[in-house]
Amino acid sequence: MIGLISATAAGAAGARRVASAWPGRTRVYEGPVGDAVRRAFAECEQLVCFLATGAVVRLVAPLLADKATDPGIVCVDEGGRFAVSLVGGHGGGANALTHEVGDLLGAEPVVTTATDAAGVPGLDTLGFPVEGDVAGVSRALLDGGPVALHAELAWPLPPLPGLSPTPAAEGAYAIRVTDRAVGPAAREVVLRPPSLVVGVGASKGAPVDEVLGLVEDALRDAGLSAKSVAELATVDAKAGEPGILGAAERLGVPLVTYPAAELAEVAVPNPSDAPLAAVGTPSVAEAAALVRGGELLVPKRKSAARPAMATCAVVRRPARGRLAVVGLGPGARDLLTPRAKDELRRASVLVGLDQYVDQIRDLLRPGTRVLESGLGAEEERARTAVAEARRGQAVALIGSGDAGVYAMASPALAEASDDIDVVGVPGVTAALAAGAILGAPLGHDHVSISLSDLHTPWEVIERRVRAAAEADLVVTFYNPRSRGRDWQLPKALAILAGHREPATPVGVVRNASRPDESSRITTLAGLDPATVDMMTVVTVGNTATREIAGRMVTPRGYRWQEEPR
Ligand code: SAH
């Protein structure tokens, strides 16, 4: 039982929220705070005190006996901004509870125990349904294990320090990854990967209960968990069939449909004439379940009703690895998005250029496998990332700025096939980071051009610069100049100068958002290319761009900003 104690109105509101979220687990202690804390300490395994840490320390100090038996105590501040693990971090489960309370109240969990700084992921945040002793297993992971891992299926998991690859001793903590309807045993957490695809067929007007009952019976008889069902699948012609839609909705999974012609190509054990006549494929349930590959666990079966109006088949699809293509932003930590951070912490394998890995190394979970390589190894990095994802790993492929802008996303996705999940996380690209420093240079139509002729012939680059010049686009040059490439920038600027005044503002930003950031605004005529290097972007204004109060501004052309005539 978790005892909830509060003193103020705000504290009482927090306590009520916890109590209503976890009704069977909590008890609210009313009355004078000292008494309430003492009673809760005697009666509960855990306490959440909506009180100052100092007050709680003074109240419980005389009561503390042994960390093996003392309750775990969490304090939440008056503003509900922090949940602090105060006493019994491991033995009393306060650390795990701190995270749970933090999630519930939107409070930052504060844990000062050494192993927790290690950043063990919450078992309920892995993206899979989870059952069993989450608190106990989390606590064991926080303690550094050992926790046995029984992965029946190789779905991508983040690194979990404390996991032991050896079989668990009797009674040890364990994590099981399975779609079978087993467990959880005592001290065990069962994670349900989305591994099952249920193919369904139904005659017109088949009732929801008949379809759903059939699916549930099929799963139960095969010893499979409904929590692992990723989707229902059927033929396009049945996309609007209420019985199938209703069953998908009640199972909480999407319905995917395929053209009859595609299903007709799938080799199935039990084809028949009826669906061939009705929808144009000899199999609906089996073919729709098998069309993306996998192992047929439950061959076609019919519902028990007479006449049977529904069929279903269950397939276990191969584990799908995950490739997250993550933009790190231009450099500053606070320009790295929270989503990027989450993806980095979710990855078990990180692939990237060594200097970018250094940028975020402290964010990685212990145990993350880091595959870093030097400049120029793009193709190898792309291949490695995709190959690791195909092996079922959770991979993060990183790039500075946005990973899709002159970076790793395109070579990686050119390698990738549809047997992995791909997630893109956008980042603040250099042009935007520089734009914000310069003022508002990108306020009207603009373009980015890379001046690197390593992979692009110069004629192509020149044609694009010319087009941008003629179209009066604001231009941001990436890769503007390096030691071996010094004539391209002057050439490109000369092309723009053919269509713009010599006084056109040009912004030069070096190391945007990095510690040695510098920027200046000059003009097309005034820019000294020797001051530009590979850490720099150069933004050239269009014919309307002005320098106003030391800032570069490209007007949007609003009428209300025109000079009165
Ligand atoms: N994916 C990156 C671009 C990679 S190309 C992005 O979206 O930003 C590399 C070029 O980007 C560099 O030569 C430089 O021109 C530019 N660049 C990247 N980061 C920068 C920064 N912080 N400040 C200025 N220019 C930067």
From TrEMBL:
Domain (Tetrapyrrole methylase) ranges: 322-527
Location of the Cobalamin synthesis G N-terminal domain: 36-116
Annotated pathway: Cofactor biosynthesis; adenosylcobalamin biosynthesis
Gene Ontology molecular-function annotations: precorrin-3B C17-methyltransferase activity
Superkingdom to which the source organism belongs: Bacteria
Gene3D superfamilies, A to Z: 3.40.50.11220, Cobalt-precorrin-4 Transmethylase, Domain 1, CobE/GbiG C-terminal domain, Methyltransferase, Cobalt-precorrin-4 Transmethylase, Domain 2
GO process annotations (BP): cobalamin biosynthetic process; methylation
Protein name according to UniProt: Precorrin-3B C(17)-methyltransferase
Entries under Pfam families matching the protein: CbiG_C, CbiG_N, TP_methylase
Methyltransferase as UniProt keyword: yes
Keywords: Cobalamin biosynthesis, Methyltransferase, S-adenosyl-L-methionine, Transferase
Enzyme Commission (EC) number: 2.1.1.131
Source organism: Streptomyces apricus
